[in-house]
Design brief:
The protein is of the alpha+beta class. The protein folds into two domains: about 100 residues, no CATH class; about 45 residues, no CATH class. The protein is about 20% helix and about 25% strand. The chain is built from three helices and ten strands; from the N terminus they run E-E-E-E-H-H-H-E-E-E-E-E-E. The strands form three sheets. The chain has a four-stranded antiparallel sheet with strand order 1-2-3-4. The chain is globular.
């Protein structure tokens, strides 16, 4: 299986592959997370990721973790990293600077797995932080860094 970088250097496209979302064979699919390596075709990315998140942004609604999770299966809870999600949303920096900043603000340094590039996603609806390293979840209102069992990873 040959992999090549898509238009954005963060995106990895796999030619002649089966979409993990619709299970149809496609000319090319894009990997949604580096953790699970599930992939989605352009149609599924647009209908399951791009359009729902853009609608939430346009209507100034809060974004929950469900919208940024891998769409391959109900049981896959891996979260798309910022460097994959932003190119998938295809937001122009000129036309959508506030939306881009709003998306970036949902990703922050993990307080349970300290290390370079270790992030957590903060669900704006439930105010739960989801560590993208250890998959730990905690309430950002109730739990402070002093109550977290820190895992140092780089």
């Amino acid at each position: 299986m040959t992999m090549h970088k898509a238009r954005h250097s963060q995106l990895i496209a796999i030619p002649n592959s089966i979409c993990s979302v619709c299970n149809n064979e496609k000319d090319s699919c894009i990997i949604l997370t580096n953790q699970c390596r599930h992939q989605a075709c352009i149609e599924c990315i647009e209908s399951k990721i791009t359009l729902p998140i853009q609608s939430l942004l346009e209507n100034r609604q809060k974004i929950s973790v469900d919208f940024v999770m891998c769409k391959a299966a109900e049981w896959c809870e891996n979260i798309m990293p910022l460097n994959i999600l932003l190119p998938l949303l295809n937001l122009s920096e000129q036309d959508h600077p506030e939306d881009i900043e709003r998306i970036k603000d949902m990703y922050e340094d993990s307080i349970c797995c300290i290390g370079k590039d270790n992030e957590q996603f903060v669900d704006q609806v439930k105010w739960m932080a989801h560590c993208m390293v250890c998959s730990g979840k905690f309430c950002v209102v109730c739990v402070g860094p002093e109550n977290i069992n820190n895992n140092r990873q780089s």
